[in-house]
Amino acid sequence: MKFSIGRTAFTKGLNTVARAISTKTTIPILTGLKLVANETGIVLTGSDADISIETTIRSDDPDNMLVIQSEGAIVLPARFFTDIIKKLPEDTITLEVGENFQTLITSGQSSFTINGLDANNYPHLPEIQTTDTIPLAGDLFKQIISQTVVAVSSQESRPILTGVHFVLSENNLLAVATDSHRLSQRKVTLENPINGTYNFVIPGKSLIELSRMIDDVKTEVTLSVTENQALFVIGNTLFYSRLLEGNYPDTTRLIPDSHDTQVAFDSPDLLAAIERASLLSHESRNNVVKITVDPDKKSVTIYGNSPDVGNVEEDLEPKTVEGNELEISFNPDYMKDALRSFGQATINIDFTSSLRPFTLTPTEESESFIQLITPIRTF
Fold this sequence. Notes:
Number of helices: 6
CATH class of the largest domain: Alpha Beta
CATH topology of the largest domain: DNA Polymerase III, Chain A, domain 2
Largest sheet: 9 strands, antiparallel
Number of domains: 3
Radius of gyration: 25 Å
Strand order of the largest sheet: 14-11-12-13-26-25-24-18-22
Distance between the termini: 70 Å
């Protein structure tokens, strides 16, 4: 195998597949990246068994400066190889595989020889045997991920909760995540109706890596789903993720359908106040912030307290406040994650009682996005 390629295009491809490569793997060959030269271009593959990424650097794109002299395949140590490519002196790189998989990399006056492995020993990528594809707008799907993945569980004791639950039917998409202390739910109407119904759970870690790959506003993403794998196609890149096994709990009954007290805020203003209050609450073992609502005085007050350091109290000016008096305590980190997911929107916070979960929704299209937080009992 021998080819020459532009360093910029090669580095971009290597960075893409590196997202799937882990140094902590029980399969040693997966610490490497697979490189295949064929008539269409260079195919790079990285995998950690949970997610696999395959990207093609096409020879018919002049920007890639790719010239393939002979075809072949090799597995190279990912970290060393990527570091070498990034630091080579010239814009053009030549790679040649010799006997015993020894690989010569040259650029200008610089040359490296590194030991490779037989590509035939690299695990095969999952086979997605379905012709049904679901087109998704990249910017919208990236937003859905960022709004829901904050609520996935980090505890492996209930593996199903470490993912986001997707339900797709006709032209509706529902995404839900919960760690049993908080919940995030997003509903979207798709432009194009889809055939059939899909119900699956994708690990949160997979979605975070996928989100980082959707960088252009106009990016189109197509999704294919089988029994235990999801495949996302983004341009010349394929992103495979395993699906979590098991039944996701029914979360619809967790969301209250009425409220006794409602407060409206601009999300950035409330976020700033919670961040100030949590400066002291983080010094306390409990990490609790308390909020009191007095509809008669149209006032909302936030308290943060640490016995060792001191306390903070701040009066806020809500846009509107109505209902009954209320005093409620919560984890400020959950509240900050929820508020950040609303961006610059104006939100309603609906309370039913001091011990019942409360919800945050945008004032416009409130049905489309809900964040739910369980309060903390402080007595």
